[in-house]
Amino acid sequence: MSKKVENIGNTYTSAENKKKQRQQMRKKVVRRRVMVFGGLLLAIIIVLIVMIFAQKDQNDQNAVERQQKEEKYQKQQDEELALKEQLNNLNDENYIEKIARDEYYLSNDGEVIFKLPDDKSQAERKSSKEDH
């Protein structure tokens, strides 16, 4: 009971077959286009994500560098203030006179300086501190 089915060779069936083939070809073309554009979109997204992470890393490095430079700047500001204070003190005659009396045992006219035993040990401490 097996019968062979054959297509009728009329124009309607051949037109329908051609129409189906065209639709299948269009589907293949559309699938290819979607795959190509989807791949391009995926590649662009990956590149952008990599760029974001690279930029974040660069920003972190810049933040660390900026923090270090701010600390260095603050130290220099403190040093500048100390140097200005020292300059003001060196321009003050009373301060210079005090230093000359304390460190070099200089005196005014008519003054007598007495050297006590504690003074010697203090002078030795000062000199040992200056050596270090």
From TrEMBL:
<keyword id="KW-0472">Membrane</keyword>
<dbReference type="GO" id="GO:0051301">
    <property type="term" value="P:cell division"/>
</dbReference>
<keyword id="KW-1133">Transmembrane helix</keyword>
<keyword id="KW-0131">Cell cycle</keyword>
<feature type="coiled-coil region">
    <location>
        <begin position="59"/>
        <end position="93"/>
    </location>
</feature>
<dbReference type="Pfam" id="PF04977">
    <property type="entry name" value="DivIC"/>
</dbReference>
<keyword id="KW-0812">Transmembrane</keyword>
<feature type="transmembrane region" description="Helical">
    <location>
        <begin position="34"/>
        <end position="54"/>
    </location>
</feature>
<feature type="region of interest" description="Disordered">
    <location>
        <begin position="1"/>
        <end position="24"/>
    </location>
</feature>
<protein>
    <submittedName>
        <fullName>Cell division protein DivIC</fullName>
    </submittedName>
</protein>
<dbReference type="InterPro" id="IPR007060">
    <property type="entry name" value="FtsL/DivIC"/>
</dbReference>
<dbReference type="InterPro" id="IPR039076">
    <property type="entry name" value="DivIC"/>
</dbReference>
<keyword id="KW-0175">Coiled coil</keyword>
<keyword id="KW-0132">Cell division</keyword>
